[in-house]
Queue: 4 jobs
Job 1
Amino acid sequence: MSTPRPDLAAPHWLTQLLRSKPVPVPWNMVARAVIALAVPLAVAYAAGDIAVGALISTGALPAVLSESAGPYRYRARRLGGATLAATAGYLVGLLTGGVPALSVPAVILVAAVSALISAAGSNASVAGLQMFVFCVLGTGQHATGVRVEVLFGYFCLGAAWSFLVALVSWTFRATSPERTAVAHVYVELAAMLSATDEAVSRVARHRLTTAMNTAYDQLLTARSWLSGRDAAYRQLLNLLSATTPAVEASVALVHAGRRPPREVIDHFVALSASVLASQPLPEPPPAPEDEADPRLAALYAGLVRIGKGDDRKRREPTPWYRRLRTWAGSLASGPLTWIAALRLTLCVAIAEVVGLLVPFERSYWITLTVGIVLKPDFGSVFGRAVLRGIGTLVGVGIGAVVLAAGGRGWILVALIAIFAGGVAVGKVRNYGILSAFVTPLIILQMDLANTGSWNVVVARLVDTALGCVIVLVFGYLLWPGSRRPQVGGRLADGLDAVAKYVSCALVEASSGEARLARSRARRGAYRALADLRTAFQQVVVEPSANGRQAVAWWPVIAAQERVADAVTEVGVTIGRGVPPPDPADVELLTAALDELATAIREQREPRSVPLPDREQLAGVVDQLESAFDAVRGPDLVERTPLRLVRRFLPYHRRT
């Protein structure tokens, strides 16, 4: 079975880089950003001193830049940590600013700490970034002539205001984010089952996987220890758990090219509305008495299961000291975090030296650009540098227009509101859009409100260009291994997850524990494949060998997903008049997947292995053979020499 050349179907790297994510506009986040940033300016202007409003508005930036959708408990921890870290960084910058002998070492040290704490998780990563950003911004505030304690007080006032705006609706919308996440699962189920085209249904399946992962993450993160709210979270979690059989049966139907009756799709839509409105669930449609298709019978049984719910065992929260120990272990177990910290520290040091040499006031934007682009765990360095440059060029152009129009007073307040909303949209759509709005926003807050000079616009453009050049030259082109292909190990990990799912899905689950293990294995496999796809999409934007190899390996990702779907199709029929496959055949399948993973790790072509010759597993075998063909070629020059991957794999295995 042949595989089409991936480079013919893949988009150009620049097109991929500029592509905006097709997600809805987060109007709630837009509204919060506008209120948090524009209201202090409006109040201060009405009181006669808009410059004070700009300083207070600056303190509101950490929460706006760190804002994300999710449960209130999660957002409180995320925004609280980011705000505290930004406040600490800003204070360090204020105390050392104006004295290069103090500010340069302080910024370099904060950059290193910011990179290291990124290994502790996404919230720690965001907090580290805010600490670095506002440390750099703080070093430039000595030029305002305002006392340090006054600047710090205004910043704290703005930080408290934005934190209040972000969480003010918690008291009367406590479980609304979680209900929305669960309801979205049913919406995506209906969309997948309604698709008539194979390509559309596959995209819908990806969106369903994302919705399931998001819902589980939010519920497991948000569950409160307060008894009054714990019951609501537990009910939603049980409902989501009971939906898993319906999800599996739906994926099996779509993979087989079957579509359920319209009443089933309408029922999923009705379930979504009921969950959102916190109303009793509708009765499921009755199953046809003469239904012979076990996949469709499994779907109807899954609909009944949703109404009954599950009783999941409560998962105890991980103590803080155990999380701290895990983070410390990640630092000691492998050099990847240390290498990222070293790269960031080196480039920040170069940026600080360059900032002392350029003939511009407040050249901290050079360092700021370097830190934001090179921040670990935020995707392709090359892609972020290019998008940062393009976005800043657009943003500076907007700033120039504002200066030319002589924007002051209420015009300035309105512009801040527009840019704040643009930042909220850019965060979820595209990094270039974010840069295009955040640049004029910070210019207006920290520069134009006080100086109003054209030199500010020119300086910001030159500073950003210098920062991007430092990143591209020292952090990408000259940095060892930055352009080296590094995707093979992740593919092998995805195959391991699929193999684990095969061993759990193709046996009869006669007990609740077995069904729970199968459900977790399925979620683990699809989550691993979703993460793998995201990681490859980050790398594919690079024009280097790293990006070209990611394009060449892309068919292997698609093959893994089809294997998982084929396994799901067989698994949902087991126990509904269909016996489970022979254990020896299941072992052959897992051995074949292990061989694929081993071949990728050992940089060789996979050997031919025996596969089951049973009608029941024919679909799985066909997709598995396609995976073997995808790993072998046919003519994927960008994968060779495979020994390049070896330099990455020792680090990958340790982390």
Job 2
Amino acid sequence: MTALTLSTAGAATLRADALVVGVAKAADGGKGLVVAPGAEAVDSAFDGKLAAVLETLGASGAEGEVTKVPSAGGLKAPLVLAVGLGRAPEKDEAYDAEALRRAAGSAARALTGVKKAGFALPVEATEDVSAVAEGALLGAYAFTAYQERGKDAKGPLAEVVLLGAKPRDKAAKAAAERALAVAEEVNRARDLINTPPNDLTPEAFAAVVAAAGKENRVKVQVLDEKALAKGGYGGILGVGAGSQNPPRLVRLAYTHPDAEKTLALVGKGITYDSGGISLKPAGHNETMKCDMSGAAAVFAAVVAVARLGLPVNVTGWLALAENMPSGSAVRPGDVLRMYSGKTVEVLNTDAEGRLVLADALTRASEENPDAIVDVATLTGAMVLALGNRTFGIMANDDAFRTAIHEIAEEVGEQSWPMPLPAELRKGMDSPTADIANMGERMGGGLVAGLFLKEFVGEGIIWAHLDIAGPAFNEAAPYGYTPKGGTGSAVRTLVRLAERAAEGDLG
């Protein structure tokens, strides 16, 4: 993992392999390039002509644009990397935290193979310190566990030195420590999502969680297939019935003596989704190792909360199964008796995520938390509605849905509130069972949310995050987002836990 330090050293005197500075388009619609605050010493080393030099090299200040220029001996660092921040803010306004986060991420990605880089970006407020540190650490991520690494292989940026934030400033130090904990846990989720499904079975996933629990004072309980059968978890067992790798339900629990609120997080953990008997066609199953992204997000968030020592109680529920076709697999037309006692007619075995989540939601509800949030790569319909970078938020409480949307925007995760239209519930009526696992095709993401709502305990505030779009990036990396697993929703869940610790759940 990339190291993070705060330094009082000036940018001109820092001994590093590279210096990162920000540049922006002139404010008020003006023309030309401006050097962002934090880089004054670097600009002086260029005789005040850094912007002109960068413009000559084609820099425009566009968000995420990276331009490299030799320091020509005017600095201790041999290389200056200028990263675009977009339009400069108006007078008396500050740079947007997400713009700083993305810029730091773009810079870190461009510094692959570099040992040490100083980041001289604008850090006028504590929020800026957090954003730059977080962006740099997330941008420096690389998944190389399955690649041969020769002696000449370039690894991610090894050390980030944050300039302009005083190490003895308690607020700045706390912001940096929080950023490090959160970024490391996001990257833990990314590692799990990127792990091939032949290695990350439900049993293997549960073992990873158990080991992390011991390291971070988090209690972990694992229900294997025998315990699931004894407990009547028909949804999880049904989905896992076709695989030689049996399912698991994992409970994580972090408690704090001063906690006044309890938050339950539930994650879909389909370690590979073939679709089952309703088999996915070629072109739709190659990335289905990512169908456990919700469980990875919940796991990482609980560990992050424990590392931060937040005064809130948090439980995490990971519903882990592998959805495969075989002679023992659930068939379309089968009826499953869920943990709640309700029966579900399975019309499509590729609508399996809602089945494992239903059991976990019921079980989580038994502990009567103040709120439940489930996270899942649940429907392609949500991707069609919101695209590849935005997750949908549904809830049984409008204020809670709004609060999560605001939190997601605050931490830089794109999201959008979605409705739960009551009229769509009728489409899941079954002549055989209490409910079917499919309904109307149009609005399929909303139908899935309505199905889950049926399994939430009465009187409990609940929200559902459908992260099917942003969980796995198949396109080129951008900002602090890599190709592959992204760790979507981890930062939102951690901030929600912080709000709960403050007594505010919307």
Job 3
Amino acid sequence: MPRNTSINSVLIIGSGPIVIGQACEFDYSGSQAALSLKEEGISVSIINSNPATIMTDNVVADHVYLLPLTCESIEQILQENQIDAVLPTMGGQTALNLCIEASNRGLWEKYNVKVIGVDVAAIEKTENREEFRQLMVDIGVGVATSKIANSFLEGKEAAQIIGFPLVIRPSYTLAGTGGGFVHKKEEFDAALNRGLHASPTHEVLVEQAVLGWKEFELELLRDTNDNVIIICTIENFDPMGIHTGDSITVAPGMTLSDKCYQDMRNQAIKMMRSIGTFAGGCNVQFSVNPENEEIIAIEINPRVSRSSALASKATGYPIAKIAAKLAIGYNLDELQNQITKTTSAYFEPTLDYVIVKVPRFNFDKFKGANKELGLQMKAVGEVMSIGRTFIEALQKAAQSLETGRAGLGADGRQSRNLEEIMHSLEHPSADRLFHIKDAFELGVPLESIRKATLIDKWFLVQIQELVYLENELRRYQLNNIPRDFFMTLKQKGYSDYQIAWLLSNVTEDEVYARRKELGINRVYKMVDTCAAEFPAHTPYYYSTFEEENESIASDRKKIIVLGSGPNRIGQGIEFDYSCVHGLLAAKECGYEAIMVNCNPETVSTDFNMADKLYFEPVFWEHVREIIELEKPEGVIVQLGGQTALKMAERLEALGVKIIGTSFENMDLAEDRGRFSDLLKDLDIPYPKYGVATSAEEALVVAKEVGYPVLVRPSYVLGGQGMSIVINDEDLEKAVVNLLKNLPGNHILIDHFLDRAEEAESDSISDGEDVHIIGMMEHIEPAGIHSGDSSAVLPPFSLSEAVQQKMEEYSIKLAKALNVRGLLNIQFAIKDENVFVIEANPRASRTVPFIAKAYDVPYINIATKVMLGANKLKDFTIVRKLKGYAIKEPVFSFSKFPEVDKQLGPEMKSTGEAIRFIKDLNDPHFRELYSQKSMFLNAQ
């Protein structure tokens, strides 16, 4: 059936600010869906309050509403536009909940708007735990024994009937919020209360716990003819008991028998067909008993999910794009396979490789947090890797995490504490994967590890084999490793760094040179969705060690953009936004734009975004070989946050051109001590400071600059390790901790300007002219990390003289640092005196906010300036903001109720929202400002 011609305008509901459990995967889905609908000539409107997303760009939608996700905002949009249909399946649980609320209020009926992509009644069936359970019973799909409870008394009765251990699952919550396992009767009352309060309907499911069972996810698509296909089967490395967002996952499934797989497929299709007549995407989760392969259904999500983005990147099948077309009436056999361009979308992808997803945690930001993993998701991001085998992909994922690991162990960071390791195996946390390898190295038997972790034996055997290989390698020296064995090590995912560490007396560069002598080179394979059965036309690659290389470098002039790796606190979706605009600008300037990144949630890793995508770790060895193959004109590191910036020194040493500001000048800004010396030379005020490399030196510096002092390391992002201290004892502790976690780092000791205001500027420089793109005043005072502070654009209470000083210092610094591209500067203001705290010659988290507030494509402009294609005078910049824009941080403290929520110099927010106000009499602004006034005026 061709598309529904009565639908000419669609509203897509976004997911709002990034929180744990709902991250930038919905930016990817929303962007894909919007572009897919625009291809059909449909007018697309988007509502989302997140300024850091691509989906809230005018390049994606016809009308963008940066409004709070409320029914009042929805009605405003429906009054201003003729909207024919709403698509709520691209914005996660937030969008679905808003869709239900709008439906209950009668908004869709009042404005004659169709809900497409999902059936509202289906949402009710899947989110209401009792309705879901009963539906599964009715259609003959197995479920765990359970009872619904709407009160404390009902919950107690359910527990008495089911017995322990059991699971509490609140209805209508995101990422397992409020849920958890209860192993003992004594723990039940508190857990039940948490679940009931977490559910907006005060309802929980008390369910039999199937601890140790395997967990699987299936991604499905269905069209209006009721055709259903399975896009991807994902197996959890971790058994039941750990939220899928916190679990290592693998595709395709590694340990499924064909009989069990076929049974699971049939049940998933039956489940999708049972929840309404909608056309679109769906995610189904199952648990499988490892003893007899009994299958029970865990849940079904009739929307695009976190796993949908992963499945899209894993298979090359653009789920959100196709789901959007199905929602407007197309059938699967009427749509084209986006990669082969010759087959239809009515096919199931075939993989001739393995993908592994590993979550990224930020427990360091939540001191005192319970790090044990369970039903409530705690990961802040994830990486995905692709390899020919599971173990190759697993090692590549470990290299992608940005946690300082060079692979799965063999890098000098192994634990040798058996008690600690065994506790970690039984009580899973972020490090359990690495501790499994550590346990094998210490000689713990495989069966003991299996009993402690309940992880399938097949996975454990793969990791155990690494220990055998490492013992074999230690028999050799670099110059006599047999070529075949060297090749085996590389095929098992070992980095050159790991091999060097295992050999003890050689360097990473020496290992690299030796394998090049032996002709052991990384080759690139195409992700084609069909295991090479049909030719593919999309340049989407991963690396491995074989003979044939499928990535042929063109003779075009090229630019490589380095991505930001996994999301984490301090480095989030704003850098993906920057990378995407960098790619678009490079293409507009006539370059072949090449993307390197490993984050499956992002728009930058969409195979349609760059001219060529390498889904690879942003890890030196991988980046180096891509550069050697492609021979680009240069590499852009300014847009990928600290991940990309950390490559700059090695790129410089290799003779690779860094596009934009030079490494030398970026390093000058990053080195806090040298930067303060520059400020002194420029006669720019700055807090008194000193540099220390030990606790003893720090005490001397603190005495000179005076307490309170701000203690911070160089070369970090998101305020990592920063603290404010008021005496020698606290200073000594802070410095010792920093040097323990960041050995060899220089520690900067600044005099802290107590009760100062904070502000910042962002600017673009082309080497001659400097354009201030925005100046913001913070609501919170100095001492609160800028990422955790509300910021108002333009400043609302800073005097004209202060703003002039900020502009003067911004221009001075841009010229002194010879900035080509972006520059962010943080200021402290006290008694009308302006002090510079730091400068960052790179994309910042505030640039997307400013770009959205003023409706100016600043990253696009900055990239063209970096490339030397344009000067600032070539652009006519018209700002459209009337009134003020407020950037408001959003936190995920609900995941860590036990931690200190006090804000300080180390960033803790997971995302942000934008709010527009007409004037300073706005009630929301007055409330925020009163808090600031109270603090600044406090005695």
Job 4
Amino acid sequence: MARKTAHLISHSHWDREWYMPYESHHYLLTELMNSLLDTLARDERYRHFHLDGQTIILEDYLQVHPEKRELLEKYITDGRIAIGPWYVLQDEFLTSSEANVRNLLIGHQDAKRYGTICKIGYFPDSFGNMGQAPQLLKQADIHVAAFGRGVKPTGFDNQVADYESSEYESPYSEMYWEAPDGSKVLGILFANWYSNGNEVPVDPEEAKKFWDKKLSDAEKYASTGELLFMNGCDHQPVQSDLGDALEAARKLYPDVDFVHSDFTQYMEVLQRKVPSHLVTITGELRSQHTDGWGTLVNTASARIYLKQLNQLGQTLLERGAEPLAALAALTGAKAYPHELLTYAWKTLMQNHPHDSICGCSVDEVHREMVGRFDKSRHMTQAIVQESLQAIAGQIDTAHNFSWKADSIPFAVFNTAGRERSGTVSVELIVAKRYFKEGPNPAALAEQMGLMPLDPEKGQLLDDRGQAIAAKVEDLGASFGYELPKDKFRQPYMARKIRLTFEAPAVPALGYRSFAWHPCADDSGQAAPSALKVLENGMANEHVSVTFREDGAYSLTNLKNGHTFHEFGIFESCGDIGNEYVFRQPEGDIALTTRGVPAKITLVENEAYRITYEIVHDWAIPAGADESLESERNAMVPFRRRQAQRSKQMVPLRIKTQISLENSAQGLSVSTSFDNQAKDHRLRVLFPTGLESATHYADSIFEAAQRNNVPAAEWINPSNAQHQHAFISLNDEANGLTIANKGLNEYEVLRDSKNTIAVTLLRAVGELGDWGVFPTPEAQCLGEQTVEYAVFPHCGDLLKSGAYEQAYGFQIPWFHIQTEIQFGSLPTTYAPVSWQGEGLALSAFKLSEHEDLIVRWYNLQHRSTKLDVELHVPASAAYRSDVLERRHDSLALYGGKLSLEAGKAEIVTLALSDSLKNKNSH
């Protein structure tokens, strides 16, 4: 009989914050690390510790004990402490594609400074795993993933049956995991959790009981005699007597080799012994083949305000600071701010651990998160503004002969992956007076406010001299200041106007310039608008919408005449669950606004946009009844609770603004409400009427195709799922895509109309999980505003291009005022142009080696051609990866290159400029 090896890997799964505030966990972390360093020094038998796969632990510890850096470096270099590959252990589904990449990239960069990186894809407690993880890991030279959730490893009651059984996804804790592109890694499931080797007894009698059970449990799942035991758990102190415990085990079980191991050693042995018939699991691991109660997917709707702040922060970094800073650097205007961007990313990612961004911690944790979001955003906005100023300073506005000396030019930037048009609001300074600090400038303010200014006489022109219809608002006089690079701050009073207009055909990753003429001339009339107000709705050349008395609306795709009905109905139901899990009370019937009279008002009718406001004065139950609190305090499991909704009602006024822009192919919607109810969920409904068994949801580097109806094992009445930018459903002729900003939970209802329900609010009062942790702030009382968009289309998500509309909805416009000046840049410009069917752009930045990094991902499950044309100097082009390294050289002729993007492939280019000579490795 072959010998078995028990690999014990010591660790402590370190939730940075969770059921206690961050600093309480921080205090315990210092104790853990001090104990670890002491144990490593005292006992040579304690040979290794796995530092939970996240380098932020080092930062947090050294913040308190900087004097321990040298000792830490020694143990890391000696291989006794394993660090990386991540910066934090993130929630994969609630952080963006690029945030997952930055997490891996920055984790590698941090670990590299200590000389070693643990090359294992470590996902011990992620609430489900992204389908493209194997591809990301393989691109980072990681060939093994270890994870704790997402896969049903065995049959009923832990019975290991024939591996072809359909009752489970893998009969073993070992399996292959394949991404949509075909990348494959060896997957290790913590089938007995990541604490199955925790607190090993030293006493022989206790050790015998312990190991009889533990060895048997591990053998139920293992495909080889290499048995994995994780010696640790959440915030587990170091087991300092482990050496004695292992010696005791060796005496009790002479036929088992007990080794204080590490992942590298374990994987090297395991990979040589795994059987050839391991199951291959594919794509997303979301516990699809379970009863549906343990997926923790409803963390996507816990504290939605956090998700909104995160979406804003990620978008400003990925589609603001990085591309604008890259453009400024490529044009020679300003050096790329590597360190500042890393700081902004790290500050943001400190909110990305699964117990943080999931909103499933105590209130103090999430209060501190708001401050971190603000800190990251403020730094990001500073980078954006500096980059815009640097670029604007080089735009040649003097040679535009349709503009005059008194014209006020400005540039509008589009950092999306495709050319787009859209409504932009720009504030312009039309007069400015500086003043010295000290005296009250009230007189100057009055003087500026009384200046004659007739907006009706002005005119907006593009850089071709074409007049553009714009709404002009006189904002009066206001205070401002400048911070010159070579002198003291310069306060001023300024007279401002606001221009709102449609910016047409702004190139992808570029800008287009416009100018305000204070006095109109004979430049011509603006092009006519396609917008028109209907008797009870509105239309442009793409869509029309009509409203019912209850505020619901019908939306017609004018390309083929198909109409969707009853959109925009709101639904409220009870929720007696917790931050992790939604649970509707037994027998609770959801309330809706169907048939509730609404006040419908036309509030905007301009050439660029029409907006209707719909107000529902509604009433919903004030919360759950009194029994819920007693059930919580008694720790009654949420599935056994009997609480119902209260009989007391509270008002809920829902104010919705539905806008249609001149060139838009769908509707933009903003819904605001003052939530005064507890223990409930609010959703907006879109009954598609489309016949399809599947739909697409924007996920990490893919539009994941998911089944509308869950697997047979699923008994949870709810089938909510994660999304990022959109959810899309189509039949052969028609499709519907719902985009959003930070609304990460949706459900395709199991009704006759394939209704898409998007969660706008989930209000609960407890953390849940293993104790009683009240979270009154998770009720999300007070004012809330959410944004989403509705795009009808012909056919599917990809052929219609609806995915580009949905991605563009999340990306803000950027703009900056400039002057009539000479410069090296044209008035309309983009550094790169590209073509590729079904491709989505995700990154445009510089690497630490100053290569231009451009990344796309193929949403199709077939290969496609990518053509790129550069409008910046480049001497060489390379295939790259998520770690931004150079690989195969690509043919670059006249600034043009072509390559094939494989099915579902994440494609990264690295472009170098020989003129700067910064890129040799």
